[in-house]
């Protein structure tokens, strides 16, 4: 029995590092998705990529530079800076930074972020291809069938159209 466990563990260590994407819109459900990925999915050799999609109407200098391709990958050290958030029109959120710091420090995973502009459904699917993601984790607001038809569901669209496995995490209110 010990041999099997050790062998399975060694096989994971020898496997290539995965690219794990997490869709982030600063909602409680996207934070729940990030916490779930950090706790249950990301390993030491992995790269966690925080994917933020800003609305098309956002008018920031960086959008003019990177509007078509999305921003360059930004390392956690730079993403942590308030100035970075201002340049991209992002919400500075200490809770998210704590989760990312923990993944980097405790698990040894590499953490980066990328910003896109446009429809979150399309841009998350584009990110899967662009970043060659092995898997994507997104949150779900838990819309009922009627609201999903009227408003559309980002998570439903991504599950249906992404070319990698997608995990949808529903925020559980305690």
Automatic annotation (TrEMBL):
InterPro entries tied to this protein: Rossmann-like_a/b/a_fold (IPR014729), Universal_stress_UspA (IPR006015), UspA (IPR006016)
Residue ranges of domain UspA in the record: 18-170
Pfam families, alphabetized: Usp (PF00582)
Parts forming coiled coils: none
SUPFAM superfamilies associated with the record: Adenine nucleotide alpha hydrolases-like
Domain of life assignment: Eukaryota
CDD domains named among the record's database cross-references: USP_At3g01520-like
Protein name as catalogued: UspA domain-containing protein
Phylogenetic lineage: Eukaryota, Viridiplantae, Streptophyta, Embryophyta, Tracheophyta
């Amino acid at each position: 029995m010990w041999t099997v466990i050790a062998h399975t563990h060694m096989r994971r260590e020898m496997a290539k590092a995965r690219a794990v994407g997490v869709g982030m819109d600063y909602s409680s459900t996207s934070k729940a998705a990030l916490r779930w990925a950090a706790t249950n999915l990301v390993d030491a050799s992995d790269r966690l990529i925080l994917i933020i999609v800003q609305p098309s109407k956002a008018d920031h200098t960086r959008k003019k530079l990177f509007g078509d391709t999305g921003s360059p990958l930004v390392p956690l050290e730079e993403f942590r800076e308030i100035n970075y958030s201002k340049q991209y029109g992002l919400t500075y959120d200490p809770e998210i930074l704590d989760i990312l710091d923990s993944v980097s420090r405790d698990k040894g995973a590499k953490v980066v972020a990328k910003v896109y502009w446009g429809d979150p459904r399309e841009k998350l699917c584009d990110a899967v291809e662009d970043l060659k993601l092995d898997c994507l984790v997104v949150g779900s607001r838990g819309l009922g069938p009627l609201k999903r038809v009227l408003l559309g569901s980002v998570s439903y669209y991504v599950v249906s159209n992404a070319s990698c496995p997608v995990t949808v995490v529903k925020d559980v209110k305690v």
